[in-house]
UniProtKB/TrEMBL annotation:
Domain HTH araC/xylS-type: 227-325
Record-given protein name: AraC family transcriptional regulator
Entry keyword annotation includes Kinase: no
Naturally occurring in which organism (per UniProt): Pseudomonas matsuisoli
Gene Ontology annotations of biological process type: positive regulation of metabolic process
Keywords: DNA-binding, Transcription, Transcription regulation
Record SMART domains: HTH_ARAC
GO function terms (MF aspect): DNA-binding transcription factor activity; sequence-specific DNA binding
PANTHER family: ARAC-FAMILY TRANSCRIPTIONAL REGULATOR, HTH-TYPE TRANSCRIPTIONAL REGULATOR RV1931C
PROSITE patterns referenced in this protein's UniProt entry, alphabetically: HTH_ARAC_FAMILY_1 (PS00041), HTH_ARAC_FAMILY_2 (PS01124)
CDD domains in the cross-refs: GATase1_AraC_1
UniProt superkingdom: Bacteria
Length: 327
């Protein structure tokens, strides 16, 4: 059995702990349903044995003290986030233990702002990493890290760049996506699909998918003119949303508009348009009952093949299969 352990500490985010662990627990249930032995043993590690209060006010029980654990007994260790991570970034005994343990653990990863703990330990230096979007700037203060601002997780089992061993994930539910990817690497895609179905989840959001919907991009720093344009775009998805057309509407040059998008949204206008149309197509596939051809037209993709290619690129599934599962 592979031992999957998670760290807990005062004011840890409860979902960062329970979400990923439930994926592995559900994999064990699926193993038993298929007549094979459970594959995972789950462990919760704390500063010391006993109850630990989470940021939700409920308590988890640490069954082992991390300082007493032989790292070679762990297959995978996950470091969750939460408002208590700041204190753990200054917890020098923990950071030292993580450094000493890292070479002996097959997979070491983080959920949400847990990446900041790995960063404080120096374990992400030279690697590509991500975290919750609100903590990106803090993670980027470590200039030795290649921060990816727009992905769900950085785990790639087939890669030779260290991402099969050390990896990070974005906020809360991205830890579940990461855990599904770990189960898929261990037990195959059919098992990961069975777990996702049991948890009523969409399998599987690729690690490189955007962290949040284009319709929900933070707007605190948007200029009023850009906000007006974004609102117009959302209401006119089937219109010509080319860079030249948008620039003319804003009375800017295409180059100036591109710079504005990159500054305030972090992506190019064309990428934003694609995401906006993709979100609309997803909503129509789930709720409208319309044909794929009609959805492609209404969401601005014009032709079903354009919709299919974009869906496959972002979600690794066809629009038809997505509708069959969620409509």
């Amino acid at each position: 059995m592979k031992t999957i352990a998670t760290l807990i500490y005062p004011d840890v985010m409860s979902l960062d702990v329970t979400g990923p662990l439930q994926v592995f627990a559900s994999a064990n249930v699926e193993c038993e349903r298929q007549g094979v032995r459970p594959h995972y043993q789950l462990r919760v590690l704390g500063e010391k044995i006993g109850p630990v209060a989470t940021s939700a006010g409920i308590q988890f029980i640490a069954e082992l003290a991390w300082r007493d654990v032989d790292p070679r007994s762990l297959d995978t260790l996950l470091i969750p986030g939460g408002i208590g991570q700041q204190a753990q970034c200054r917890n020098h005994p923990l950071l030292t233990w993580l450094n000493d343990a890292e070479p002996h653990i097959r997979r070491l990863g983080s959920v949400c702002s847990g990446a900041l703990i790995l960063s404080a330990a120096g374990l992400l230096d030279g690697l590509r990493a991500t975290t919750h979007w609100s903590d990106m700037d803090e993670l980027a203060r470590n200039t030795k890290i290649h921060v990816d601002t727009d992905c769900l997780h950085t785990y790639r089992p087939e890669a030779n760049d260290g991402s099969h061993h050390l990896f990070t994930s974005a906020g809360v539910t991205a830890g579940i996506d990461l855990s599904l990817a770990l189960v898929e690497a261990d037990l195959g895609r059919p098992m990961a699909l069975a777990v996702a179905r049991r948890l009523v989840m969409f399998l599987r959001r690729p690690g490189g998918q955007a962290q949040f919907s284009a319709l929900l991009l933070p707007d605190a720093n948007r200029t009023p003119r850009l906000l007006t344009l974004l609102e117009w775009m959302a209401l006119n998805l089937s219109a010509d949303l080319s860079l030249d057309t948008l620039a003319e509407r804003m009375h800017l040059s295409p180059r100036s508009l591109s710079r504005l998008f990159l500054k305030e949204l972090g992506i190019a206008p064309g990428q934003y348009v694609e995401r906006l149309r993709l979100e609309a197509a997803r909503a129509l596939l789930q709720d409208s009952g319309a044909s794929i051809s009609t959805i492609a037209r209404l969401s601005g993709f014009r032709h079903p093949e354009n919709l299919r290619r974009t869906f496959q690129k972002h979600f690794a599934v066809s629009p038809h299969d997505y509708a069959a599962r969620f409509a």
